[in-house]
Fold this protein.
Amino acid sequence: MLEKFWEQEAKKLKWFKGWNKVLDWNKPYAKWFVGGKINASYQCLDVHVENGLENKIAIYWENELGEKKEISYKKLYDDVNKFASGLKKLGVKKGDVVILYMPMIPQAVISMLACARIGAIHSVVFSAFSYKSLKDRINDTKAKFLITADYALRRGKNIDLKFVVDLAVHNTTVEKVVLVKRTDKGITLNEGIDVLYQDLIDNAQDFCEPEKLDSNHPLFVLYTSGTTGKPKGIVHSTGGYLTYVNSTFKQAFGDLKNEIYWCTGDIGWITGHSYIVYAPLMQGTSIVIYEGTPDYPDTSIWWKIIQDYKVSVFYTSPTAIRMLRKISSDTIKDFDLSSLKVLGSVGEVINPDVWEWFFEHVGNKKCPIIDTWWQTETGGFMLAPKISYKISELKPGSATYPLDQIDADIVDENGKSVALGEKGFLVIKKPWPGLTQGIWGDKKRYEEIYWSRFKNYYPGDYAIKDTQGYFWLLGRSDETLNISGHRIGTSEIENAAILNSNVAEAAVAAIPDKIRGQNFCLFVVLNNKSEDEELLKKEIIQTLKTEIGSLAKPAKIYFVESLPKTRSGKIMRRLLSALLRKETIGDVSTLQDANSVEKIKLVIR
């Protein structure tokens, strides 16, 4: 049944050559549609142009300055072909990794599809990440090519991406940097390395033959944080991934060929890959892309966009919803949101009260909320309501049920199914086409993280299944934070903090945050007592920003004599979080120094 279902879903796509085997399952590795040939760019563009949709709008783009573009499927097709031709002329070959460090501009989508067209593997890095994070990803992939822009626009400020890129590519494998020049600000090009995007386009051929790629050829590598300091390069295939995101997009949101769809995510995250670019464009949907934040140039900008473009499907994060509830509840009534038919939530668990506000004030009590649970590693939605569900079948805060052919369960420490209503660990028992091919260059790490604890795929989340079979996600069970829907490893932050010469040890403690969903406090043990603690705090915050990015800003920094550790030396981060929440601690006899808890309590007070 599993293979038959996914074979039927795969047949909804346009393949150059059929497969000779649906699934080759060598646990924990799955190869789907073995022998089949396909191309993601062809699937997103050529298919629609050939079917007479060339004049249909593919992208409605707008930025916070009010600048706008409407890009038809034919225009997108032309631009992708030219840029793909230009990349080939530059020396990019099938199988090469191309790093993208881009703001939310049309050229970001063009770059992804151009790489896919020639069989290059794109690796998108979130444009708010630091030069150190960018350099780490370059070094891990050994990428020779990078695409960026001169500036990103954020809250009225031009963020100098070129400066970050110049720092990042120094002493790396990068040979060529393609630069989208979008402002009239002067920039210095590095001779022999930097190439202007426009020059490539102007001198390129109009058509680039799409590579007929093996179904299991990597489409992209996307980095996500884990429990250790080094981010994981998650690899996704072409045929299986495209089949999966196409299927899950339709299951959750329906047929959107004639709809205006807006996902507010960023291409630097898996949401942007799966449900801004690939799934919607495969379906021939018109998508909205906004380069900006929910509160600039004013707190009503998102409502205005929904009204102006007559958005019918609006997919965003609980973090954004919480912010909008706080800053624009009074003004939402001034805008016509009657075009909305479906709402969606992504990135983290949505609180029931936030769900209710979203349903009542944005959806006018008539739009179902498609609350999705999934990960970078899963490729697409795993748990989510289907569009066919009635609103009365939804439960605020629950991702409802697994989608078709997703075999999910809740198990105890021993891997045995728990009773309904009991907390346990979420596992997936059968393979699916969106399952990652593994971690780039680190087969052993993939097997240890996701498959060693239980005999099934373990995503690292706690969950409960209620008496009606509804799934409720309860957060991470590992040492990973979920800040504004983005995962950051606690070790990643701690390793950055101790780069300060006066920091001996550091520990991260997760705390709830009304806007970001989750945040953290940093507990620091110093080598020497600081005469100026406020200055030291600023130095640590700047180090975190430099090493990781602006997401890694602690709510507070506490200087303590020692950290609570077990006798085996493990830092008890959950105990620190409990102290911050003023919860009962319980037995501390397993700690090396039980007195450390009382001392930390005094510091917190």
Summary: The mean pLDDT is 92. The CA atoms of residues 410 and 426 lie 5 Å apart.
